[in-house]
Amino acid sequence: MATPKPDTTTLPFSKYPAWTLSKLRPLALQKIQAVHDWVETKCIPAQGIMKAQLAKDRWKMPPLMRQLRAEAKARGLFNLFLPKEFKESPGLTNLEYACCAEIMGRVYWAAQTMNCHAPETGNIELLAKYCNDEQKEKWLYPLLRGEFASAYSMTEPDVASSDATNISISIQRQGDSYVMNGRKLFANAKWNPDVKLYILMGCTDPHNPDPRRRHSMLLIPSDTPGFRMRQNLSIMGYDCAPEGHGEYIYEDVRVPVSNVILGEGRAFEIAQGRLGPGRIHHCMRLIGQGELAYEYALVRATDGRKKPRGKLIGEFDSNIERIAQMRLELDALRLVVFNAADTMDALGNKSGRYGIAQSKILVPVTVARIIDECMQLYGGQGLTQHTPLPEMWTYARFVRVADGPDAAHRHQVGRDQLKTAGDVVARHLRYYEIAQELKKQFGLEEELADDCTWEYIKPKL
Amino acid sequence: MATPKPDTTTLPFSKYPAWTLSKLRPLALQKIQAVHDWVETKCIPAQGIMKAQLAKDRWKMPPLMRQLRAEAKARGLFNLFLPKEFKESPGLTNLEYACCAEIMGRVYWAAQTMNCHAPETGNIELLAKYCNDEQKEKWLYPLLRGEFASAYSMTEPDVASSDATNISISIQRQGDSYVMNGRKLFANAKWNPDVKLYILMGCTDPHNPDPRRRHSMLLIPSDTPGFRMRQNLSIMGYDCAPEGHGEYIYEDVRVPVSNVILGEGRAFEIAQGRLGPGRIHHCMRLIGQGELAYEYALVRATDGRKKPRGKLIGEFDSNIERIAQMRLELDALRLVVFNAADTMDALGNKSGRYGIAQSKILVPVTVARIIDECMQLYGGQGLTQHTPLPEMWTYARFVRVADGPDAAHRHQVGRDQLKTAGDVVARHLRYYEIAQELKKQFGLEEELADDCTWEYIKPKL
Amino acid sequence: MATPKPDTTTLPFSKYPAWTLSKLRPLALQKIQAVHDWVETKCIPAQGIMKAQLAKDRWKMPPLMRQLRAEAKARGLFNLFLPKEFKESPGLTNLEYACCAEIMGRVYWAAQTMNCHAPETGNIELLAKYCNDEQKEKWLYPLLRGEFASAYSMTEPDVASSDATNISISIQRQGDSYVMNGRKLFANAKWNPDVKLYILMGCTDPHNPDPRRRHSMLLIPSDTPGFRMRQNLSIMGYDCAPEGHGEYIYEDVRVPVSNVILGEGRAFEIAQGRLGPGRIHHCMRLIGQGELAYEYALVRATDGRKKPRGKLIGEFDSNIERIAQMRLELDALRLVVFNAADTMDALGNKSGRYGIAQSKILVPVTVARIIDECMQLYGGQGLTQHTPLPEMWTYARFVRVADGPDAAHRHQVGRDQLKTAGDVVARHLRYYEIAQELKKQFGLEEELADDCTWEYIKPKL
Amino acid sequence: MATPKPDTTTLPFSKYPAWTLSKLRPLALQKIQAVHDWVETKCIPAQGIMKAQLAKDRWKMPPLMRQLRAEAKARGLFNLFLPKEFKESPGLTNLEYACCAEIMGRVYWAAQTMNCHAPETGNIELLAKYCNDEQKEKWLYPLLRGEFASAYSMTEPDVASSDATNISISIQRQGDSYVMNGRKLFANAKWNPDVKLYILMGCTDPHNPDPRRRHSMLLIPSDTPGFRMRQNLSIMGYDCAPEGHGEYIYEDVRVPVSNVILGEGRAFEIAQGRLGPGRIHHCMRLIGQGELAYEYALVRATDGRKKPRGKLIGEFDSNIERIAQMRLELDALRLVVFNAADTMDALGNKSGRYGIAQSKILVPVTVARIIDECMQLYGGQGLTQHTPLPEMWTYARFVRVADGPDAAHRHQVGRDQLKTAGDVVARHLRYYEIAQELKKQFGLEEELADDCTWEYIKPKL
Which residues of C98-107 are buried (b: 16+ CB within 10 A; e: fewer)? Predict the structure, then answer.
């Protein structure tokens, strides 16, 4: 018996632009509906339980998470993120998955119940794309089955690693082994025993004249001797357990050369391919967070117990305007990310690069501001554990620096744009040439002489 | 011989989102290409000529405009804006026309060469939708043929007319006539002899208990006795000639009762239908302005003559970031307006209301800011007639107040949103109920007692 | 032997406006210098130790704090905040103390070493101003000697207590006792055994027709039976131990009637007097935080290890501009708070009300933004415990809601301002009258007729 | 008979900070009061007349201006700006004059009635400081007497002249003459016959190895042959008549070598001294404009005729907040500029440099935004000649680019600040050293090891 087509006039579909809705295939509608039902009934109401379990055993996957993962897997909700081009993929387009990701974002750990969380998503994609069969057998398939967890280790404390050519951890070949020495930040905590694999980017050939051929990526089992976690890094005070963000020391860490991915010196090639869809996922999850924060704002605005100067919070015009502005901006952001996803679907990841950067630059900063305003509507309580808003804000704030700060991405976009200036100038020179003819034709050469009209259209002599 | 399909990898198409491009029919692609060619070759280079002709005779259509209109009409570029549902329409969807409107917006008078300028567009739509055959014969068809110009007269100086229920100009029925007395602002200048018709909104029934049945719309020939233009209103100092913005006095102005549109007391019904697509046009034209301003920024950034401290303006990282930010925001705005247009196409104007408000609130304020930054890159020159940026900024600034200031629209959106709060609260109560069950199931009732967990999910008792 | 006059061309004095510097008396110069030396040598370098001690025993004053307090007291650095008008005061003006407060703010716990921390400062002032001798003996003098700690209990979870007329905790007189029932938020944690006293604002006369006569303030010893701390409230995830922010239940809590301050129904009178200087202290401490954050920005900007794209962070023009903007805004904020302090000195606390509101509204939001930008310059690390910036930001963010959210204060200022509109209108009417005479005199009555010139100067008829 | 001391509890004094008020000497109080009375009764109400006279003869000083100047001179209100150090000065401090300048700023031409307008102020100061006696006799004294007008000619169209080392107009010595060739922008219009003198900065020694010794300043009589005004530059569409902003061509313009100021190659020395106080005047006048705009906002907010949705504009909470925010920011800006002026008084112009930059960067952009918001409160009317707000905004916008755009000043401040980083780093290293000792003392060396605590305090190795 066929599953009935979901009702697209209700949530979550009622929020989608018409053009998006028309592109969602029946399969996708059903998956999105299933994800929605899952998050609404299994995740949002379970936040307290998850917190309580984690409070008892901070660095282990809580039993409820294990149970929910098993159940989600059984329901066919595992690995939805994996793009269609992979044979292991459940078949959603980037746009279809973006819809799922927004819903997952409502609870920060919901994606994990569906094996769709960072850094797993990026890692799985990387392994699926660049590993050989043996490596896949050992690492990719168990990850897809959710049997253990993985980490991605790139950032370093001692250099500006947002410019990856600076990455300095040393990887030296000694016989059949690579030997590593150095420090890393931010990869998921080893304290969590589920984490079995680190994908490490390091420097194998520091003197290669091409700075994009100096680095390699290696598969590092977490129990490799010499590989130590110094401490967990908190993010705005949150320890982010049980995943965490470790600070690591590599001291004569040794793995077989067969652990290199794709080949020595090919880390940039791999990194390039890794980040696109993941940034979209982050951004859609953030929009999900923004939506939930917005709902809390509506709840507070209409809370009959809270009446400063005798009016509901939502009866103050200033707050009415604030709520409208949040709504308008959230919807604009969704259009930006959906478009980026759709561009990847239509034209490939490379063409999607601009849309991804656009999402990465505009979404986190705006969503963080929106959540901040929602907190403000809650007054003092808004900053306490009486609402989840502080954690939500922190996640948005974190994404502003994850994968490089806003400014780095803005610079990249700006530099790309300036390369288009030549064409623009050429076009404007054509305007100028036609204008010169028109002036002659209308006998206005004197009146509209070059030295007293728009400089901008003049050739630069 | 069939016209070849335009190359969609070049301008103007290369700027469109993939989803938009895929919706443009061959007919539309050709029209858009034709509009693009027209504006690039006939309008942008002719700006100086138009200015010079206007300088000589300020309140008349310049000869070049008359000539371009004739030519554009001959090329089939007239009235492209008129929506498909009208039998007089050339057949573009709202989305397809939005593409045209952006291009037209590059030069503020380009739309007029194609009979696609405000207030003509709104007026024509209104007349096409609500007039009887006799009225259409007299006013609509000549307007579509571009034989004269029309004006829309709604704003008043003595009341807050952004809330149209306040409109107070008196219209009294006396026998077979309506007699008007009062003042109006902003309708196009009567000093321009081309303007033959004013569509007036006034008050016929001030004591009707339903404030939305008190007003009527009338057709007022511009030469009606008693109807005087007191002065032209400048906008930020610009007289906006030859269209202008008049300040009017109605003193015992008399028209036959047959000049009422749709019927007495039906002005709100008409006004409702009028504004939607027009706001989209304004917004797309503004994006066109923003794009041109952005091009000037690129031109300046790479102008080899301008090297403060020895670097090109575009070599300063601060400006690289500014240029990126402008680019990203302009593209986000285009997504917003395209989506509003597409929603109207897919679901009708009423469903498009939110998207239209979103465009109206986000586009003008952002484009004005972007143009302002472009001016700033030009230093002192940026504010002078050496660039068209001051006029472009002024247009964007004006649209922030046209059809009511931002805040009025934001309030409307906010009030609509607050009506959804009930559903949100109900949903959150369901989360709470499920959470209660889970607490029982996990034996965490004490630990997660209501009075020490998230207040937000608790029912309001 | 006289202490030498401090060198006012070095820190901390070199930052002060000339007008401020000229108002600092020799006594104050020495105190400020002493506070500066204290914080530079005893507090800033000791932050790690304090953290480590607190990590071991979370809800007790760390031994180092106890030691530093004893030493600061011996050096004459205790209670500097207490205004000159109190006989217990060390004699600094508000302006002079503001200088001290900025320095103390560099480390959030430094004020406590000098018994100048919130809520102690407000509580001490309140007790000094409104208590009778017996109450002073029991509570004020030990507090001044630093023998125990106190808390202020006003905010409630179930009402909008930023509008204090809503405060609802019930205080009923029964014989010689008051009996309290209700809930409170945010007063310092009872878990810290040093906290001996709670100053409670509650409702004694809910039906009094004057809503500002319904409330009373009581002295509540922390070990009073029935007074329970339900949990600690975190602020953006930080527990703020060992002070904390408690969530309290009052269940038939009973104190003798002699514990009322000033008399029943006089809480508003007391509250009025309490908040002024305390807000200034908060704001100056925040400026101190902002200054330190700014120093971290400079440190990062010149860190030779961090060179994205081959340039120091401080060699990017965009960052040069950011650093300048932070510097300019911090200095402007200091002018605002210094002026508020000086106004209180010159004209009394009541006249200072506007300046205090100005500080409260402008400082926290701006300093929070500045710290946020400093974090961003540190990339991912900026959000971790590798810098103290996250805690600093959190403090600034918290002050945005402490004592009522920004918007509440802005509303108050706005309402006060609108009361001045009558005078402004009257002044503008005089302009209009003179203008009428001038028009006559110059024969320009027609040309400058009322209905075509500036509406704004016309009388409203 | 002595003039009575003004009442400092009323306008204009009631707006001043207490510290400022206490520094105003009796002489200054009287001058400020006189300026206030003058502007209130003679300037504000005469704006319509001035406009009408100018409309008739656009490029000549209106008769009313000539009459007001004569009257103001007779009242002793001429040249108040000239700093105390000049023997020709009326004796006000920079702070005292700043008070006058704010008042003058309420009407943009009011300063001119008192011979206190730009560029006269800067020019007079320059001539007084650097000219020899003969030059003074010929140009300075008549200017002080208000007998003619002068212009300052620095900006050029073909280079980035905000970096003055780029100034390229050629000045060649030929015998006893200098011969000039090149183009200039922005100096006051020659079309106004009152303008008799241009102070020109040009390049006498393009190959001098010191780029700050290449330029000279010359006195150019406006009727010098070969010196032509090509057109007037509008500012955001305003012609700014009768002063205007000319675009000039110098073609073999020849003046005697005695027209050089101070000596060849000394233009930078002169320019340095010129700009300080003038920027303060601009900023204070802008604050005056902001204050007047704010008053219009209050007038509109309480206008009984304007009631959207049945409420006064000032009854909307959103507008109450907007009005408060404007008020708070204007007052903060005044503190900034007053402090800059007072710093110059106390420590000299050089020490005032930072405060001047602070004013120049913060004031224009903020005042422009405030005026923009006031316009917005007026809806469509706000942009028309129904209020003076558009011209006021334009003035504020112009000052953002006058004397170089914001960004240029921000860069300068930022670069100066980065020079202080070394001291900051040194201070932080001392913190680190003390911290190391404390760790030893408390036995926390392991726990607080360098590689897991705050990076920021660590020496860079």
Answer: bbbbbbbbbb
